[in-house]
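Quick look at the format.
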Amino acid sequence: MDAVTTCDINEASRLFTVHVIPLLKNSLCKDIVKAIQVILEDDNTIPEDTIIGKISGYEKKNIIISTNFNLADLLCNAFYYALTCVKNRDCKAETKAISKDFLQSLHEAANCIQLRVQEKTNPDSTLLPTLSADSLSPFVFDNKGVINGLPNKTTAQIYSVLIRNNKFDFQKLKEKLFETINSYVFSRVSIDAADTLAKSRTLGIKGMQRFLRIYKDDAEALLGEMLLYIFLEVALKAPKILSKIEIDEVTGIIKSKSECIHLLAPFNSGLPSHQLVCGASNICGNLHDAVDRAFSKIIDIEANSDKEYQFVSNTNYNQILSPDTTAFLVKLIVPEDDKSPTADMSFGVFLGYTIHVDAEGLNNDEYRTAAHNQLVADIEEMKTYVYDKIINAGLQGYSFYFYVVPFNDADNERRSIIEEIIAGG
């Protein structure tokens, strides 16, 4: 069971595409999807917001109403849920009821289903992650939710590090950020080229030198930019195209206003098309102020959207990505015709703020409970505020992915955490 719970769902879905989908009768694929919808709709024991699998977007309510699916993703997530959340011995009767006749009875209703099968692409032609899943291991609490009422997928998630003696303890996060430096400041090509111990050590030294230079140039923003990179890579599963330092080093007339650019594939999002995720971040004492400042950047990026696409398609990736990946990316950004896959723009946002919890008279366990309750209250209140910001800015045509982390003292810790990393603390 450990192998199932710790599996990479994206790799599992790819294996479904290669090994499972070819074994299914094409005439039954839509019927199978419709059967999953009917079974979920009839099962009152599963809450509507339950993720059927591991990927956000595969909530029960979304599966029931959707008509467009990546078949491998859906089946992989359904199998994951069945293996980890369902006791087969408790539903023997229900299992027997799922017969060939049951599938055939759904055939007409299944005609509305549209299926997408992930192409068996060369793995080198698509973007692979630059970070492992344990990059989020310093965060021991999270609350994930959707901002409802918007036409495009918009999520808001809040994460917390360990709380010790009524304070947020960032030690493990600092260690993880230190481990992340090379992946953040260097391209895949540069890291892959460090194929000997000597080259790896040299790369580590150069990585710290570049990191120090970034800190000197923009100490206030570096922590937010690094955390944004980690959350988009690991939580959203949108691999990096360019980090802030790589964007700043690209020469040419056309400039990007994004803090980073990542690629979110349908393989990971459950959405029908790729998304070019443009990043913005802010860390300050007040959460509303952080939202306001991030939205100022988002509005600038949106106004520059044509140039953002041109920036990505015109960038010389010879020292950043493999040739196959470069060709795939350029084809995606500049589709050959109306039938070719394309990429919508979306926004990934990291926000940091100072949490306010009345600790007077609370022991450590009571404080942890109060802090976690405050986190949930803060993110719920932020959802309403963000909804209004999106509507007022006329940005309903975009998806948003918000990641929020509380600090003891955000205005000071956004610098002190980086300073302690540099000092080896």
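Next, a different chain entirely:
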Amino acid sequence: MARTPKLSGRRGAVRDTGRGTAREAGRAADRGTAGRGPLRGPGRGPAFESGVLRAPATRPGRDRLLVVCGAKATEKHYLQGLVEHLANPAVTVRIRTKPCSPAQLIAYAAGERDRAGDDFDQVWCVFDVDEYEVGCAVARARREGIEVAVSNPCFELWLVLHFRDHKAHVGTYRELLPYLKRYVPAYDKARLDFRDYEHGWPSAGGRAVRLAEAGHEHATNPSTGVWALVDRIAGR
């Protein structure tokens, strides 16, 4: 909300410098508001326009995200590297891990959000379909107001998309490894190095959005909704 500006001692502001100044200031105020009455801000008393004074610009607050990952290391290391690489001053990201089923992950994230009060503007859960039936977990997330970044079947699909399209059905994580290791031969899901992916994330997002309708990635193989979280972190 814009604040009513304070009078200062700078040139152009009205100052009490001697006899007659207050009367001149009063006449100037009358001329500026004659015929239209005082301007009022919402919930405030009268405020008067001036050709000299301006309300100070308000600095927008940071976008505060809580991201909870359902795997121990891979997603966390990627997202930490992304946040450091982008260094977006408009977004703060807190990343936590909770290796568990998607349903348990949503319940955990909802509890963390409720305990945190107003600390976060948005809560995200990052998880894979793998062998789980995730429809109920996604439905609960929607009821709870929690965003999800689901990869079907796994997060490695998102990594592959940094380098190439992949539209063929994928049964398991192991089926994707040969494609990923063409570009990252030393890939280790426990020791992901974001430098292998720092130049490819915009292309990965463009490829991912063409695989499935946003919000329905859990029902489409192959697909991943990680692009939406990445865009949020990047401020796109």
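The beta strands are 39-40, 46-47, 63-69, 91-97, 122-128, 147-152, 223-224.

See the schema section for token definitions.
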